[in-house]
Design goal:
The protein contains 15 helices and 26 strands. The protein folds into three domains: 186 residues, Rossmann fold; 172 residues, 3-Layer(aba) Sandwich (Rossmann fold); 93 residues, ANL, C-terminal domain (GMP Synthetase, Chain A, domain 3), CATH 3.30.300. The strands form six sheets. It has a nine-stranded mixed beta sheet with strand order 2-1-11-10-12-13-14-15-16, sandwiched between helices. Strands 4-3-5-6-7 form a five-stranded mixed beta sheet. α2 crosses α3 and α6 packs across α7. α11 links the parallel β13 and β14. Helix content is 29%, strand content 27%. By secondary structure, it is an alpha/beta fold.
Length: 510
């Protein structure tokens, strides 16, 4: 069984398509293997050894996918968001202790300037449009004084470093080993029954664990193909679908909702490009959206539950038609999943904090003993990781999330699940999107608010929506404020963010 990315890729002898892009040929597995050896040689010649850290700042597309795969076979990768500003790059490059930065040829933007200011070597990615998609050359801006020693990363070597979102505190560094990546890729391959005939249409950003592991790595683990879009664009999605002829795609709920909004006018493409399944992860998928997707595409919608510290996937709804439960993130799909007491280090029945243990779970945050002491504990002779999510496992083994513990609204001692309120408000015929969140209250501590986007062409007032909720929710759960917006603020990966929304909308004053 393969335990490194190199051995995972080498386990496929067939010369099958791997990475594709608009208007370009497929890069074959044979070509990807050859590219991996070439990039290893280039990195060593540039003085970058197997345990050096290489930041990658590239736009979404096949070269970003192959840069991750090939660099991670030879060194430690650290993909960064291309939308960061100069100060952000300076922070991340310093915090990562990056040895080098991979950037496009001709790029003189903030990432390159920050690397120059921080003394980080710059490796230029050159891609010839006449080459197959994903093929590139790496050329250093300056030659290394001394080449790095030969050698390959082992199963326990770090392959990928990502930061947590850092919404309420300094972002934590999450190191993921070669064996973490392989285990998670294999888990997803098994959950989705991926084979070499599958084609994934990737619209997820490739600086995020979802796209890197679920779309790219799981496809490679199964000898399948990936067609890399330049990013998510609802206006172009069905054109890409018509070109790529995928068997599946994976996205976050807001992307699925945007796709649904344009599905009726693209019924012919949906009919001529049947999907085997659709996958959703990285945020809770509203039950109404899961049902609408399944009806629209006539395919099962597989909601999965993932996070960076688990190298993405933890649970997944089963693949068989009818086995998916709307509102549930499915059954354990790789790691062991249990419920723990939220304050005590013990496993419990009922509702509590979701905890996991398994081969895909990070060994711990880097240089952060306080965070490790808070988030890891031993019980029943097992080392558990606290996910920060609240939920319960039903008798059939399906996990139902209540929400992030830090997002649960405490209204004068009454605990309110934002996901529950979301689900009720989405039943209103005029509501297309909703995110429920806490706002400060002088006497109660917190109160309930909801930001809403209306269905195109529909009308409703905040009073209408509150009255609708009042008929279906206990009084203390009804949002005291409903804000109707054209668009709800989202994070870099397309997820709606509850924490900090009160401040963004000017509702943070008591």
């Amino acid at each position: 069984m393969s335990t490194t990315l190199h051995s995972l890729l080498a386990s496929h002898d067939a010369d099958l398509p791997a990475i594709g892009a608009p208007d370009r040929d497929w890069l074959t597995y044979g070509g990807l293997r050859a590219l991996g050896y070439q990039i290893t040689d280039r990195l060593r010649a540039a003085g970058i050894g197997a345990h050096e850290r290489v930041a990658i700042v590239l736009p979404n597309g096949p070269e970003m996918a192959t840069a991750f795969v090939t660099v991670a076979q030879a060194a430690i990768t650290a993909p960064l968001n291309p939308a960061y500003r100069l100060d952000e790059y300076a922070f991340y490059l310093t915090d990562l202790k990056a040895k080098a930065l991979v950037a496009q040829a001709g790029d003189d933007g903030p990432a390159v300037r920050a690397a120059q200011d921080c003394g980080v070597d710059i490796l230029r990615l050159h891609a010839d449009p006449s080459d197959p998609a994903g093929v590139f050359q790496l050329v250093p801006d300056a030659a290394a004084d001394t080449p790095a020693a030969a050698g390959s990363p082992g199963p326990d070597s770090t392959a990928l470093i990502l930061h947590t979102s850092g919404t309420t505190s300094r972002p934590k560094i999450v190191p993921l080993s070669q064996s973490n990546l392989v285990a998670s890729a294999r888990n997803i391959q098994t959950s989705l029954a991926l084979t070499s005939v599958d084609r994934c249409l990737n619209v997820m950003p490739l600086f995020h664990i979802h796209g890197l592991i679920a779309a790219v790595s799981a496809s490679l683990a199964s000898g399948a193909s990936v067609w890399c879009a330049p990013g998510f664009d609802a206006l172009k999605f069905f054109g890409w679908m018509n070109t790529a002829m995928p068997t599946w795609y994976t996205a976050v709920p807001t992307m699925h909702q945007a796709i649904l909004s344009r599905a009726a006018r693209n019924a012919d493409i949906i009919a001529t490009t049947p999907l085997r399944f659709l996958r959703s992860s990285s945020a809770s998928l509203p039950a109404q959206v899961m049902t609408a997707l399944a009806d629209t595409f006539n395919a099962p919608v597989i909601e999965a539950y993932g996070m960076t510290e688990a190298t993405h996937q933890m649970t997944s709804n089963p693949l068989a038609r009818g086995a998916q439960i709307p509102g549930s993130v499915g059954i354990a799909a790789g790691p062991v999943v249990r419920i723990a007491h939220e304050a005590e280090n013990r496993i419990i029945d009922g509702t509590g904090e979701v905890v996991i243990s398994g081969a895909n779970v990070t060994s711990g945050y880097e240089s952060n003993p306080d965070a490790n002491a808070k988030n890891f504990f031993i019980a029943d002779d097992t080392r558990w990781f606290r996910t920060g999510d609240q939920g319960a496992i039903d008798d059939a083994g399906y996990l139902h999330l209540t929400g992030r513990l830090k997002e649960i609204i405490n209204r004068g001692g009454e605990k309110i699940s934002p996901l529950e309120v979301d689900g009720i408000l989405l039943d209103h015929p005029a509501v297309a999107q909703v995110v429920t969140f806490a706002i400060p209250h002088a006497k109660l501590g917190e109160d309930v608010a909801a930001a809403v986007v209306l269905v195109e062409g529909q009308r409703a007032t905040d009073t209408d929506i509150r009255s609708f909720a009042a008929e279906r929710l206990a009084d203390f759960k009804v949002p005291r404020h409903v804000i109707i917006l054209d668009e709800i603020p989202k994070g870099a990966t397309g997820k709606m963010q509850r924490i900090g929304l009160a401040e963004k909308l000017g509702l943070a004053t008591t």
